[in-house]
Structures are given as structure tokens and as C-alpha cells.
Design a protein that fits this description.
This protein is mainly alpha-helical and 706 residues long. The relative contact order is 0.12.
């Protein structure tokens, strides 16, 4: 028909019948060599960056507290090995607003074995040898009984007073309490500040508050870490359950694809319905409870996330989200009910293909291993880069001083001009930084680390997609299955991909990585401009973020289909991407209806597994079921293992179902080419399975009419 010719002219010519074509071409050459060389150079440079970071970095800076000299408290193999606690000479100086800007208290800090346990002033301790020996634990070296108190305080060798303290994240903070509404420290509401003045215990509050702001995030991180140490065993069990459930689901799909799809749909609807019911029951149970009507906006951010579960609005939000999901799924099922039969036939064929290529089910483990190596290398390099700065010391002074906050050298500060002009000033460790060429380009190295992480991660994912595509394409185009298939289809396809198409894999993953790094930069800009009131800028950023999100999704879709064509025909990336795009455009209705419905059904399968395992984890770790009360570990945040199990379950389910999804996509493209190459005659029979031919009303002409 003329209109068909015009249509095909716009979207390329349909495939011609080729009697010699029997699946993935064996006689092929290397593709996209320039990009392959570029990728190898980038990897070598990445290794060089890692070596440079490891030679300059020091992760101890984020592990151990640091004293005023930049030394690490509690570091093994040093004189401070047994001095694990950081002690502040005057915690009240931490009440300065500069603490929140510079993340350092303008007071001497030193490493000690244990925190002070009693009230004591230097004047009082000096009169007793026993007390003075105890006091000297919290003084700098060089303090002797022959020195007078004024001289010791003038040289800043000892604090003027000690207050009872407790260790908190390996730092000594005053043991504050409350008696009858009055702030106390060591059961006393007043204390001697060492200068003969009596001070209220509440004066310590601001200093403690500012000092703890700096490490509040670390406190949460430590609690989360403790929760992991208490629950890792049960988390592993939950992930094993998710893996076994996913494997069982895949096996059942192999033999009962049609039944399993409908059971899966019903179970997903029931699981979400139960979630709505549970949220409603929690919402109703909190009615009339004190504080339950507080809004999320009024509550603000809380480090103890269990607080949110005591608010009715939280459960109302969960209930609305689940209800919207339920309605969307039901409406999609109603409108797509006729197309689900075709999708089921395709899933059945994918099950048969996986049955002939069983090793494909274990290939995600290889992908996970490679991704784990990429993530580990990126994380270690990032830590070493971020800790490769040098200690910077600055002048801290309580009174006005021209040199305040200026850089100084603690080695000769006592004899320096700055000390003479500001006698009461001190040269203290401030932060880690540097002014060398290496430190100037440190941001660039961090950026390169992130970019290569994206590139390598996308390359590993692309390698998995091309390997599986080659294996499943060899199944589809085999005239007699499995006799015409390679002995080891996955290994054969992996070898072809690495030997001939490393450049094509690098090319596709490079395009995707550039888009992802732009998205990261946009998020960074958005974070920096959060306080800006310019609505035009906010709108522009929002539009850009949305556009690049859509672009990333499109590129992922095109890359995936391009890799399938590369695996089959062995052409370069651009040619394969064009051929795949035109093939899909010539069959746009089938793509929109058949392929996407299949993806939707597989997504429901992942949702079902995550839902089942997530509900089990919730009842176990939250202690809502009496049978698990004594078995479940005692945690700070029970949502930590639940969230870990849910995310891990999704990744595991995604790993197994990604094999199915890749199989479906590969078979779908092969199926479209089969319709173009063949016409069902004896000379050109369709290679698609009988189940698909029945659904599409296609049949080979040598096949007897039914």
C-alpha cells in the first residue's frame, strides 16, 4: 500500500528475508574502537586517582576525635592509644555562635583516658597532693607542683575547673540533669567556675548544645550502626527469604505462567488493600491520644523516626498513597484486560527460554559482584579524597584581636608576634584543608570519582544486558530448540560482548553517565539555591530537572534496545540504536501495548515480593506480634532493618526479574523482526512459538488449519 511505503520510508526499510540468518552473527568485528580506547584511558586515570587518594588520605580523621594539636584520640600504636575521650577545657566557650560556623569550640581540647567524675577547681586541687595528681590527668604536659596557679592558668596548661562529665560519642560533656525543673550538674544547681565565681548549671547548656550540634548526625549514624550490629543476622534471613521467594516465583512462572500472573495480580491488590486497612486501624487507634493531632509540619525533622508513627497524619498520608496506588493498578488492569493475554503468552515463552538457558538466572550474581566492586572502589576513594587535607590551625581569642581566626603554627606560636599582640589567644586545630596544587584540584578529583562511578556502573549494567540479549536471541532464532543453540549461550554471549563490543558498551554508558552527572549538578544547584527567593530560578531548575529525568529514561530505553541489536548483528552502537528505534517505530502500537503491559506485570511481581517480605519484616522487628517479642532484637530505630530488608528485597527481586525483563525485551524485538522477515510460508516460516501465533492469529501455511 502507498501509505505503508511512506511510513516505512520515514522509519527505515523492514527486514528482508535472509535464509542464512540463524541468530546472533558469529563472524563480526570490533565496534566503536575509539570509545573503547577512551574508556581504557579513563579507567587507568581512575586507578591513578585512587592511588593518589590512598597515598594522601587518612580515614582516621572521620573515625577518631581530634585534639587541639590535630592528633587522634584512641589511635592504636600511638601515645594516645589509651586516651580515647576528648576533653574540653571550658565547655562554656562552645556557646559562641562561631562554633556553628567553624565547627570548632574556641577552647583547648585534649585526649584523656576517662572523663572527670567530680567537681574540682584548680585552686582547690592545688592545696592537696592527691587532688592535684588527679587534676593533672586533664592538663597538658609540663605541669609541676612547683608552678603557681596563676602561671599554670596564664600558660593555658590546665582548665580552671572540672565538672562531672559523661562520655558521648567519645567526647566529655557535663552530666546535666534536672531536679524540680532546675538544671543541675552533678546534683548541684551551682558550681565554681575556677575564678571564685558561682555560676548556674544552666550556663553549661548552651555550650553543650552547640558542641552537640556538630556531632548530632554522627550520633544518629552510631545508633543506626548499633541497630545493624544487633539485627544483621535477621536482616540476612529476611534477604534469604526474599531470594527464595523470588526463585520460587520464577520457577512457578516457568511451569504455570498464566495462572501465576493472575494469582500475582490478585495478591498485589490484596496486599495493598491490607496496607490500607492497617493504616486505617492505626489512624483510628490514635484518635484522642495526647499529641497525635500534631501535624508533620509542626513536628519538623526528628532524628527518632518512631515519633512520626505516633501522629495520625503520618498514617493518613500512608493510607492515601496506598489508596492511590490501588486505584491506579485496578484501572490499568480494567483497560488492559484484553492485552494481558498476549503479555501472558510472551511471559510463557520467556519462561521456556529461561528454562533452556538456566544459567541466565545466576548471571545477576555476577553483575551484583561487579557493581559491588565498583561501589566499594568509589566509596573508598571518596573517603580517602575527603580525608586527604592537612590540619589547619587558627587563632582563637575571647577578646578583640586583629589576628582572630588567622592561620597559625602551633609549634612556635608561644614566641610569635600574634601571641605577643594577643596574649590571651590560643593556636588551636580548626579543620582539615590545604593550599597545595593537589588540594586546589581536590574538588575536581571528587567530581571525576563520581563521574567514573556512574560510567563504570552503567558499563557493568550494559554488559549484563548485552550478554543476556545474545543468549536469548540465540534461543529465539534456533530452528530446532535446543539443538541449534550454543552449548553455553551465556558464556558465548559474554565472550562476544567483551571481545568485540567493549567500545559500544562504553559509548552507550558514557552518554547515560553524562546525563546522570548533569542531574547530580542540578540537584547540587537546587540544594545551594534553596534559600533563594527567586521564583524564576526555582521554576527553571525544576523544569531542567524534569527534562533531564525524562531524557535519562529515554536514553536507558534506547540503550537497552541498542544493546540487543548489537548482540544480534554485531554492528556499532549508533547503527544498532537507529535500527532498534526504527524497528520499534514501525511497530509502535505493539510496543505501547504488548511490551509495556509485560513490563507492568513483571513490576507487579516485584511489588508482590517486596510487599510480602516487607509486611513480615514490619511485624517481626516492630514487636507487634507476641510470638516474636522475645526473639526480635532490641533496637533504637526498628525501621532501620525493615527499610534495609525492603530495599534489599527489591534489589534481589529486581535482579531475578531483570533476567525475565531482558528476555521479554529480546524476544519482543526478535518477534517483531520475525514478522518482517517471514510470512508463514513453507520457505519462510515464522519462528515464534505456537502460543504467540494463536494469540496474534498468525500461522505457518504448512501448518494444518485447526
Amino acid at each position: 500500500m502507498p501509505e505503508d511505503g511512506e511510513f516505512y520510508g520515514k522509519h527505515g526499510e523492514p527486514r528482508k528475508y535472509d535464509p542464512t540468518f540463524k541468530g546472533p552473527i558469529q563472524n563480526r568485528g570490533c565496534t566503536d574502537i575509539v570509545c573503547c580506547i577512551l574508556f581504557i584511558i579513563a579507567i587507568l586515570a581512575y586507578i591513578a586517582v585512587g592511588i593518589l587518594a590512598w597515598s594522601q588520605g587518612d580515614p582516621r580523621k572521620v573515625i577518631y576525635p581530634t585534639d587541639s594539636r590535630g592528633q587522634f584520640c584512641g589511635q592504636a600504636g600511638t601515645p594516645l592509644e589509651n586516651k580515647r575521650m576528648l576533653f574540653y577545657f571550658n565547655i562554656m566557650k562552645c556557646a559562641s555562635p562561631m562554633v556553628l560556623l567553624e565547627f570548632q569550640c574556641p577552647t583547648t581540647q585534649m585526649c584523656v583516658e576517662k572523663c572527670p567524675e567530680k567537681f574540682m577547681t584548680l585552686l582547690k586541687a592545688y592545696t592537696s597532693r592527691t587532688d592535684f595528681d588527679y587534676y593533672k590527668q586533664f592538663c597538658k604536659e609540663g605541669v609541676t607542683s612547683s608552678m603557681g596557679v596563676p602561671e599554670i592558668l596564664k600558660l593555658g596548661l590546665c582548665p580552671a575547673m572540672l565538672t562531672p562529665s559523661k562520655p558521648f560519642t567519645r567526647r566529655c560533656f557535663p552530666a546535666l540533669g534536672q531536679t524540680g525543673g532546675v538544671i543541675t550538674v552533678g546534683n548541684n544547681s551551682h558550681f565554681d567556675d575556677g575564678s571564685g565565681n558561682m555560676r548556674d548549671a544552666k550556663d553549661l547548656v548552651d555550650g553543650v548544645k552547640n558542641a552537640t550540634v556538630v556531632i548530632e548526625a554522627r550520633q544518629v549514624a552510631m545508633k543506626i550502626f548499633e541497630d545493624y550490629t544487633q539485627s544483621w543476622y535477621w536482616i540476612l534471613i529476611g534477604l534469604v527469604i526474599a531470594m527464595l521467594t523470588s526463585l520460587l516465583f520464577i520457577v512457578l512462572l516457568r511451569f504455570l505462567a498464566g495462572i501465576m500472573v493472575w494469582i500475582m495480580i490478585a495478591l498485589v491488590i490484596l496486599v495493598i488493600a491490607y496496607g490500607i486497612f492497617h493504616c486505617y486501624m492505626e489512624y483510628a487507634a490514635l484518635k484522642g491520644e495526647p499529641g497525635s493531632d500534631v501535624t508533620l509540619q509542626q513536628l519538623g525533622f526528628q532524628t527518632d523516626f518512631t515519633v512520626y508513627l505516633q501522629i495520625r497524619q503520618t498514617w493518613l498520608a500512608f493510607m492515601i498513597i496506598l489508596a492511590i496506588m490501588e486505584v491506579i493498578i485496578i484501572l490499568l488492569l480494567i483497560f488492559l484486560r484484553k492485552r494481558i493475554c498476549i503479555a501472558v503468552a510472551l511471559i510463557k515463552e520467556a519462561s521456556r527460554a529461561i528454562g533452556h538457558v538456566m544459567s541466565s538466572l545466576f548471571y545477576p550474581l555476577f553483575t551484583f559482584l561487579l557493581l559491588a566492586m565498583v561501589i566499594a572502589y568509589w566509596a573508598v576513594t571518596a573517603v580517602f579524597l575527603s580525608t586527604s587535607n592537612e590540619p589547619i590551625y587558627k587563632v582563637f581569642n575571647e577578646t578583640a584581636c586583629d589576628h582572630s581566626r588567622a592561620t597559625c603554627d602551633p609549634a612556635n606560636y608561644t614566641t610569635s608576634l600574634m601571641k605577643k599582640e594577643c596574649p590571651q589567644s590560643e593556636c588551636l586545630f580548626a579543620f582539615y584543608g590545604g593550599e597545595t596544587v593537589y588540594h586546589k584540584y581536590l574538588i575536581g578529583l571528587q567530581f571525576y570519582n563520581v563521574f567514573l562511578f556512574f560510567w563504570c556502573a552503567n558499563f557493568v549494567t550494559a554488559l549484563g544486558q548485552m550478554t543476556l540479549a545474545g543468549a536469548f536471541a540465540s534461543y529465539y532464532w534456533a530452528f530446532v530448540k535446543p539443538d541449534d543453540m550454543p552449548a553455553f549461550p551465556v558464556f558465548s554471549s559474554l565472550g562476544r560482548s567483551l571481545r568485540y563490543h567493549t567500545g559500544s558498551l562504553a559509548f552507550g554508558s558514557l552518554i547515560l553517565s553524562i546525563i546522570q552527572i548533569i542531574r547530580v549538578l542540578l540537584e547540587y544547584l537546587d540544594h545551594k539555591l534553596k534559600g533563594a527567593e527567586n521564583k524564576c530560578t526555582k521554576f527553571l531548575l525544576c523544569c531542567l530537572k524534569c527534562c533531564f529525568w525524562c531524557l535519562e529514561k529515554c536514553i536507558k530505553f534506547l540503550n537497552r534496545n541498542a544493546y540487543i541489536m548489537v548482540a544480534i548483528y554485531g554492528k556499532n552502537f549508533c547503527t544498532s540504536a537507529r535500527d532498534a528505534f526504527f524497528l520499534l517505530m514501525r511497530n509502535l502500537i505493539r510496543v505501547a501495548v504488548l511490551d509495556k503491559v509485560t513490563d507492568f506485570l513483571l513490576f507487579l511481581g516485584k511489588l508482590l515480593i517486596v510487599g510480602l517480605v516487607g509486611i513480615f519484616a514490619f511485624f517481626f522487628f516492630s514487636g507487634r506480634v507476641k510470638a516474636f517479642e522475645n526473639t526480635a532484637p532490641n533496637l533504637h530505630y526498628y525501621w532501620v532493618p525493615i527499610l534495609t530488608v525492603v530495599v534489599g528485597s527489591y534489589l534481589i527481586a529486581h535482579g531475578f526479574f531483570s533476567v525475565y525483563a531482558m528476555c521479554v525485551d529480546t524476544l519482543f524485538l526478535c518477534f517483531l523482526e520475525d514478522l518482517e522477515r517471514n510470512d508463514g510460508s513453507a520457505e519462510r516460516p515464522y519462528l515464534m512459538p505456537e502460543s504467540l501465533r494463536k494469540v496474534l492469529n498468525k500461522k505457518n501455511k504448512n501448518q494444518p488449519a485447526e
